[in-house]
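Example 9 (inverse folding). The structure is encoded as follows.
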């Protein structure tokens, strides 16, 4: 059976719910939903939140042994339907065109932190 490695979220003085930030099982990395929480709290505006989520996602992916090119599947959760167009534009800039992952985008009523406008989770290949 392949080894299972769990990567915990950075604590930074904050308390987190009981989950691993990501879990690597063999050549696959499962990354929990990542929101736009920064050292100063949650930034205002969709673009700023998206940029912070991508920064956190890149760090989590690298820690687990993968890269943005290794992402196989992404789930994007948005709290406002009007952000879909901007999300598509920013998402296209964040992922190389020849390495676009499969993706599901959902508009949800709310996320666990009320200020979050989005959250992204993914599955990546470890190579």
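The amino acid assigned to each position is listed next.
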């Amino acid at each position: 059976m392949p080894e299972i490695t769990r990567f915990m979220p950075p604590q930074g003085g904050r308390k987190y719910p009981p989950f691993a930030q990501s879990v690597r099982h063999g050549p696959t990395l499962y990354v929990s939903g990542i929101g736009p929480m920064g050292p100063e709290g949650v930034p205002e505006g969709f673009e700023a939140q998206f940029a912070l989520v991508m920064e956190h996602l890149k760090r989590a992916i690298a820690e687990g042994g993968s890269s943005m090119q290794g992402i196989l599947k992404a789930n994007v959760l948005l709290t406002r339907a009007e952000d879909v167009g901007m999300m598509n534009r920013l998402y296209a800039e964040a992922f190389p065109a020849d390495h676009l992952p499969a993706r599901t985008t959902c508009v949800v009523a709310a996320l666990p932190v009320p200020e979050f406008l989005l959250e992204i989770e993914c599955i990546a290949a470890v190579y």
